[in-house]
């Protein structure tokens, strides 16, 4: 089974890129973030024509998450973190697919930091941590996937010294990510590629993609039951080089 994550940075504005990638990569499950579309403007017909069914949680102009599946039955579990129903941001969606829990998330950016937006990021992270712990206790095969807006280590960013004050790289953010891992989750990319430079995001400015001045902020966290089934992983970096594309590249894993 191939599971992918892709921050599309506007599902309608970048729909041709999304459909081309789906056709070429053909993931069995695809988690999308930053739809930037209200619930009734999600391009369901085009997604279905591409061979996928979809469950989505939209929001006008900002945020938004979706999970697509190809030939696999999905059942929605929740579309907000527990005790977070009052949050107006569409940032979390959880489904059951093939007896596996798939949580698609778009963690807050948090900039400027310090400040209210950074406080919101850490509060959201704490709610995610608590829910992640409960998922592990349930014992089902689980993957928490998406745009975490976290640069885990200096190895995961081009010129880390330039990011020391950024919310994606501040010590509090990295500590929260490490606390999540310490529960028993496995960072799938680093499990298979512990010493390789891997980026998933390149800014639109200063020719970042051309210079390979990127960040690794799109992650797969696997429970033990899925870690033992991990067989492959990668980044479809070439998609970032297509015309009118997102500033993220799709990332994927393969499970036996």
Automatic annotation (TrEMBL):
Principal EC category: hydrolase
List its EC numbers: 3.1.11.2
InterPro entries tied to this protein: AP_endonuc_1, Endo/exonu/phosph_ase_sf, Endo/exonuclease/phosphatase, ExoIII-like
Q: Name one GO molecular function term.
A: double-stranded DNA 3'-5' DNA exonuclease activity
Q: Which cofactor does it need?
A: Mg(2+)
Write one Pfam family the protein is assigned to.
Exo_endo_phos
Show where the Endonuclease/exonuclease/phosphatase domain sits: 4-248
Gene3D superfamilies with a match to the protein in the record: Endonuclease/exonuclease/phosphatase
UniProt entry keywords in alphabetical sequence: Hydrolase, Magnesium, Metal-binding
Q: Which domain of life is it from?
A: Bacteria
PANTHER family to which the protein is assigned, alphabetical: EXODEOXYRIBONUCLEASE III (PTHR43250)
Q: Which family does it belong to?
A: Belongs to the DNA repair enzymes AP/ExoA family.
Protein name as catalogued = Exodeoxyribonuclease III
Native source organism of the sequence: Pedobacter albus
Instruction: Name the lineage.
Output: Bacteria, Pseudomonadati, Bacteroidota, Sphingobacteriia, Sphingobacteriales
